[in-house]
Amino acid sequence: MKYAWVEKQRGHYPLDAMCNALSISVSGFFSWRRGGKASKRLTDIQLLTLIKALHAEIKGSYGWPRIWQELKARGIPAGKERIRKLMQAHGIRGRHKRRYKATTDSKHAFPVAPNLLNRQFRPESPDQAWVTDITYVPTQEGWLYLAAVMDLHTRMIVGWAMDSRMIRDLVINVTCPDSSCHSFMENGLGFGGLAAH
Question: Are the CB atoms for 64 and 87 separated by under 8 Å?
């Protein structure tokens, strides 16, 4: 009804003044003239609800530029700056990918343990050969280092330990929590003929 009135009065008053007085947009008026429905501007609460739903749907990985593109692709009219300001005001942020952290230093002057296994990865019985490895897991509080020990015969994990730092004793503590056997493990000797690598 407002658009029809504006159409009748166009010869008497400036278009932008009439649209401003009636709280309608000029683009909405022209959309009405083309036969389409006037695009209704979403309130901040409605738009924020859509942003939160979309942010949850994509598991929080998008920041405001990609949220804006996704809303635009879904036919939801909203400006970039409006989305940026709403997300910033309500603390909605995209998650950043963590940077790769190199943890292996092959160029060192430390002694290297002898290779007692000599690539013989199929021992005849349990507790003849154990292998260890360290991996790291990114968490919200930083890196968490995980060391595991596997029996090569049974292929079962016989121990594991975690620490917030990758220190020398991390793997040793998996198999020997007290310090009484650290010198055996450091030399790759293990216990009673057990080869630990």
Answer: yes
